[in-house]
Fold these 2 entries.
Entry 1:
Amino acid sequence: MTMTTTSATELASALQKGEITSVECTTAFLDRIGSTNPTINAFLSVDRDGALAKAEAVDTARAQGKPLGPLAGLPVAVKDVLCTTDQKTTCASRMLKTYEPPYDADVVRRLREADAIILGKTNMDEFAMGGSNENSAYGLVRNPWDTNSAPGGSSGGSAAAVAADMAPLAIGSDTGGSIRQPAGLCGITGLKPTYGRVSRRGLIAFSSSLDQIGPMARSAKECAMLLQAIAGHDPGDSTSLNTPVPDYLTGLEKPLQGLRIGRVAEHFGEGLDQEVAEHVEQTFAAYEAAGATIHEVELPHARYGVPTYYLIAPSEASSNLARYDGAHYGHRWDGTPTDDQGISTFDSPLVEMYCRSRAEGFGPEVKRRIMLGTYALSAGYYDAYYAKALRVRRLIRNDFTQAFKKVDLIGGPVSATPAFKLGEKTDDPVAMYLVDLYTVGANLAGIGGISFPCGFTKTNLPVGFQLQGPALSEPLLLQAAHQYQQTTDWHLQRTTAIPS
Amino acid sequence: MPTQDEATPTLTREDVIKVAMLARLALSDTELSSLTEELSKIVGFVSQLSEINTDEVEPLAHPLDSQNVFREDRPVPSLTTADALRCAPRHDEECFLVPAVLGESGSA
């Protein structure tokens, strides 16, 4: 058994049967990280000692017949946006270069309780702002299928870690597509759960009404297994849903007979890559062959999703990131004077410390979004921009509500193109923002969405398919993706493009 | 002040300086120039929302039709002072230390 290419479900079974130990399994992934991460840069930090100590403890407990959690001994990679008490949490920002959180995120606490092995923290766009993982203060991430291409973002490190077999399971977060889009571009499966299904406590806040944590893995079945461990109500996040968590694994094997899948004509408009369009259409055909029916539905305001998102998310970010003040934690200006001709007069020494600490600690995209959000919320512009976007947000949500009266799920592309070249969009913020075209709707409406591989281009880049479903439709999303993966093997293809 | 039907809003360097002070960002000369151009472009892009008539639409601030969540008003253990101060760039035994709140800048 080559452990690094074996699914988490099979690893779990082999661990339970005693065919392998968690130390062996964890070592295999740590070694793979050791050989691959210098090229891919998917991990910002690797906790070799902590991971092996936990693996040994799990092996010992298992040998003694003690009860173990559902992920016992399985390695997991965690996006560096989630607070961990035993590892630095940087959010890929210079601002948090040395930050050691005083508490664990609820998701991290649940992973520990499930006896998972946390391998390390994955790279990302700084503060989860970006769609290419080129905005990390600690270097970009390379796509394992083409190391000159971007893995997508902002959970690019988690996606690349799974795609390159450095971890069988990974945690991502999705504010406008940050799980689904990198999953699509890296040829893996990623689920953005319904808003509130997973606690946001200890998730470093970007846009609090949009942020949601979710599972990333090779297959829908492994995503189901990981979601099972992290979903649930948390009194520490008053927006987490206080409704029972269903069993995500039992319904996976049900056939899709009678499932109604919506197809949105607008998804196939200008800008959609021809090869992507072909694979997406073939996926619809595969669903029809599996007993589903395809129905045209309309999302009339879908094309306003990106501008709506790029008012709401930066506005919430400008408020959330006000906490980085150089006083409580994070980077602080050391007082060195500068002769730059930019902003140089301040109301007081305290204000100068705030302004210079923030200017030094944040990278260009984070500054751009804080500026945009501050502008949209400022006196005289609030109604024209922020309040307007909130009104359009309701129209976007209403579109989904109407569509889900006719269909159970909506299918379509996850990204307009396969992975794009590194540097291709970095000079044009608006072009970069448009990579979120198909994904922001689910965040604005608070619904669920899953992305999974549905083919490869002629140049061997993965193509992703997205299914979106109403609130709390995770069982159906996972079942539909799993059933597709029972008759296709796109999700099992492994890359050979990583230079050794 | 822009109106909703203004087609191409642009930001001046003075606008950007004003917003940067609101955002507490000591932007450099170069950043002020690039952001003036980039923000104008982005604001122009998001302004396409003005095409939509939303006169009868209530704002939606949050995806959940959530209600206020109440809990018992009871003290529970929280971060200790030491834990809360541990990551502060400057602190003493019980307080965060910051430069003077009043007075001229340049003496931090």
Entry 2:
Amino acid sequence: MLHAISLGIVLYGTWLLFSGIYTPLLMGLGAASCLAVVGIAHRMDVVDREGHPIHLGWRAITYWMWLTIEIVKANIDVARRILDPKLPIDPVMVTLEASQGSELGQVIYANSITLTPGTVSIRVSENTILVHAIATALADDLKSGAMDRRVTAMEGPGPRRLEDMG
Amino acid sequence: MQILLDIASWLLLIAGSSFALIGAVGLIRFPDVYSRMHASGITDTLGAGLILAGLMVQGGLTLVTVKLILIMVFLLYTSPTSTYALANAAYSRGPQPLLGKRESETPSPVTPENEPS
Amino acid sequence: MFFAATLAILVTMALALTRALLGPTVYDRVLAVNTFGTKTVLLIALLGFLTERPDFLDIGLVYALINFIGTIAVLKLLKYGDLGTTGQQAERKP
């Protein structure tokens, strides 16, 4: 229920920001559309922790700030490789352990890897992620597990994998 | 004050444009589709982010800035998803990645059977 | 100064288009077209500022959505050869 209300508020906020015209007719139409969308989403059974992860809260914001710094650092590193006339790359493939409890956590981890230039996640299976990195140094950074630990910490305690909840 | 804002937005736009160009050069220079994904990652993250940030400084506290933020958030959420879909499709159906130093004459292809661990 | 950034984006798009024409595999082309689409969003936003018509931003937002769905659709067609099936059905078929 909490998720449905929060989804409705987010949708209506988006409507108000995009329309920019605040007449009763348009605001009423917006409310009707938002209710319809929340209703359809409820029937599709996608209004849950996975589709609308409000439980992450502030932890998600601090994680984003950390990730932004990492992205900037990785960008500069890869940009330097591109501009170097010798093109100093040595692509490697590594398999990483993902210690997240939930599928949502794994998706966040895999997407963070892809979002950081120089590393792309290629295949996500049970608890491992296959990663292609442009240089061994970047793969070693990931292997040290700093990002993995941060994603797990952000995910926080809560129900683990869906199949474990019975 | 307005001049300071203009300078800040100018710097952000220049930096963003440079990163977008560098990414495009990488798209041309890199040897295979997997390494090209990294180059396109540069234009998608820092290139787009800095240009949109530069425009936000120009927009000020208006609906324009809100829309720019939404464009940025949307790009940041969709670009890894489509890159993952591309990497996954290329890995299961397309060419295998070239590994090892680029100078080596015979790059070793990897098949799903002997994935490194 | 918007003009300079617009010019840089246009050059970026030309380079992406070059990659799309060069290939060599279809995945290179999809990657290049996806990059091209992301740059189009930026170009639309910049044009909005250049011509002082902020409504362009809405078009940019919609373009970002269409670009994403288009890329995913092309990749799905490449991987499964069919847009109608869900992932699980297609996995079973081989």
